[in-house]
Amino acid sequence: MLRFMVYRALSLMGVLFSVVTITFFLVHLMPGGPFDRERKLPEQVERQLRAKYRLDGPVLGQYAGYLGDLLRGDLRLSTKYRNRSVNEILAQALPVSAVLGGVALALAVAGGVAAGSVAAAAGRPWMDRTVMLLALGAICLPPFVIGPLLILLFSFTIPLLPVGGWGDARSLVLPAVTLAAPYAAYVARLTRASMLEVLSQDFIRTAYAKGLSRFAVVYRHALRVALLPVVSYLGPLAANLLTGSIVVESIFSIPGAGGFFVNSVLNRDGFLLAGVVIVYCSLLVIFNLAVDLLYGYLDPRIVLYE
Amino acid sequence: MSEGTVLGRAWRARGVAWPCTVLLLVALSACVGPALLPNNLQQVSRESFLAPSAAHWFGTDLNGRDLFYRVLLGAQVSLLVGAAGATVSFLIGVVYGMVAGYVGGPVDAALMRIVDVLYAIPRLIFLLVLISGLDPILRKTMEAGGLGDWIGYSKILILVLCLGLTEWLTMARIIRGQVLSLRKQQFVTAARAIGQRHLRIIFTHLLPNLLGLATVYLTLTIPAVILDESFLSFLGVGVQAPLASWGLLLSDGAQALNPIKGCWWLLLFPAAAMAVTLLALNFLGDGLRDVLDPRRRDQR
Fold first, then answer.
1. Chain B residues with CB inside 8 Å of A262's CB?
2. A16, A29, A141, A247: which to substitute to probe chain B, counting the most B Cβ within 10 Å?
């Protein structure tokens, strides 16, 4: 087991390292520099700026220097938000996104699994069809349609919840639902498909044969195995949700990290971009490791290590 | 179920015929609709934010343009980007997956590690970097190549390319898995034994066996690409006015939605058009999977 985990951890570290490298060189290859303005800066100034942000010298030297800084936990200065370090920016914005994303993650998994297993196991075709149609609808409509619709319904027509903003639990509801909707729908589809497959297996017939109730069979025996595909989707799901979404954050005016994702590319803010990518990728790696561990617990038939 | 060809079987299967009909209708009205509409609907006018009426079926937008016309125009761009982008990803994914699965060994391992790494880069970032990297290059080449008049359409080309370049990962994994299992079967060994070349085996023996599965995922990639395009339009890096895409119309509509002056039609009609198309595509993909996916066929 330990050997397997070490091997997995090492290969995931390899992925992380490759992603850092690719990001660094992609930023370098992108046309336009971080100091390009409408009026060209004097050469002297630009040279000094480049020196300050350590963007001078040969590329490989820059890359080596950057890797060294990363190992020390220094994500460097943002070239757009002058004099603020990437660490500072992320420390401010990520917790906001993580809280929102955490709530959305819980909603997506709980709602999706519940809807999917009910659709597959309730034995009522109309229920199955309604749930799946709703799920498809949530996948087909982008969040910038769902978000405003929810605002219109629950803030203006029925004044229940605030339009946006950040600070109390009530303002979390609408953005979390908007963020979770498409993922919940996807989880519901995954759960339904795998539940249908599991319910046709021999051990389910055995469970019925020894006299268990339908409820016990579906939710205690089948669900545990049917969850496996959902669990393996948790890695990308968590990484996506916890790092924030620019769409939801801009609709509900939430000061999260999603905006930095997009703006760092548009501003050629290389170190901020790399920082965001590193956070995303680390989350993905950590959650994938956790998923490997969960697998063995959920289905003891699976042997991870050879 | 052996009567008839695959196509005939697919058409009779539940959940294939009606999505096809819906999609054909949408595509047909997108192609010929804008040309049939009267000329005065196509221009900017002073009648902004008119509610739907007999003259303007879907109402008008901020600049007084007829929304019905805009939705049809958006359908052209969205369907084009969706279909072409998915085709690019289909080609890359199928070739990549076939090479990895057929060659096997260290090549397979290396190719699949690359896919793993690309999966770990946030897709939106990947897209934005590609777009902002390739866009100026394409513009310059178009200008240099004497295609200056077409510069407005360069964005569409870029979107097709970049969305195709980011969507092929899942396709490659699925095709590789399928090739891995096909490669061990007797008909491939037999083909090798009578001395057929690898390329010939790939094209005449493996490819026909893969096309069903690949078509299913092609159908499911189109809605994903259309959705991605709408995200990019919302962020302002997608198609630009006077062109339209459903994503652009939707993001305009979402901004116009407020309780004081509720221009609901600006959101409702593009959303309905997009939802109907994407639903049909998803249903078609699921229906085709029931018919064409070899694993599912065994279960029936």
1. 124, 128, 235
2. A141
Closest residue in chain B to residue A270, using alpha carbons only: B129
Give which of B130, B131, B235, B248 to mutate to test A binding, by max A Cβ within 10 Å: B235
- Alpha helices per DSSP H over chain B: 6-12, 17-36, 67-103, 105-120, 123-144, 154-167, 169-183, 186-193, 198-200, 207-235, 246-256, 264-292, 294-299
pLDDT confidence of B149, banded at 50, 70, 90?
Answer: low
Determine whether the interchain pair A148/B121 forms a contact, defined as Cβ–Cβ distance below 8 Å: no
Q: What is the mean pLDDT of residues B238-243?
A: 74
Residues whose CB is less than 8 angstroms from the CB of residue B199 and which lie 6 or more positions away in sequence, other chains included: none
d(CA A117, CA A128): 9
Smallest Cα–Cα separation from B231: which of B139, B284, B281, B163? B163
Tell me the per-residue pLDDT of A17-34, one tens digit each, with 9 for 90 and over: 888 888 888 877 777 666
- Burial grade of B48 (CB within 10 A; 0-12, 13-18, 19 or more): middle
**Number of Cβ pairs < 8 A linking chain A and chain B:** 106
Residue A188, chain B, CB below 8 Å: the answer is no
What whole-number distance in Å separates Cα of residue A53 and Cα of residue A37? 17
B239 or A105: which carries more pLDDT confidence?
A: A105
What is the tens place of the pLDDT at every residue in B250-268? 887 777 766 666 677 777 7
Q: How far apart are CA B95 and CA A44, in angstroms?
A: 50
Whether residues B120 and A15 touch (CB distance < 8 A) is answered with yes
- Which of A53-57, B71-75, B175-179 has the lowest average pLDDT? A53-57
The pLDDT confidence band at residue B101, using thresholds 50, 70 and 90, is confident
How far apart CA A13 and CA B117 sit, in angstroms, is: 11
Give this complex's ipTM: 0.79
Asked if the model's pLDDT at residue A49 lies above 80, the reply is no
Q: Report yes or no: A241 at the B interface, CB cutoff 8 Å.
A: no
Q: What was the pLDDT predicted at B9? A: 65
What is the phi-psi region of residue A41: left when phi exceeds 0, alpha when psi lies from -120 to 50, beta otherwise?
A: beta
* pTM listed for this prediction: 0.82
SS3 A77: strand
> Does the distance separating the beta carbons of A236 and B119 come in below 8 Å?
yes
- Inform me whether the pLDDT recorded for B54 exceeds 70: no
Burial class of residue B119, CB neighbours in 10 A (0-12, 13-18, 19+): middle
Residue A142, min C-alpha distance to chain B (Å):
7
State the CB neighbour count (10 A cutoff) for residue B179: 26
Q: Which of A22, A144, A267 to mutate to test the interface with B (most CBs of B within 10 A)?
A: A144
Left, alpha or beta for B262 (phi > 0: left; psi -120 to 50: alpha)?
A: beta
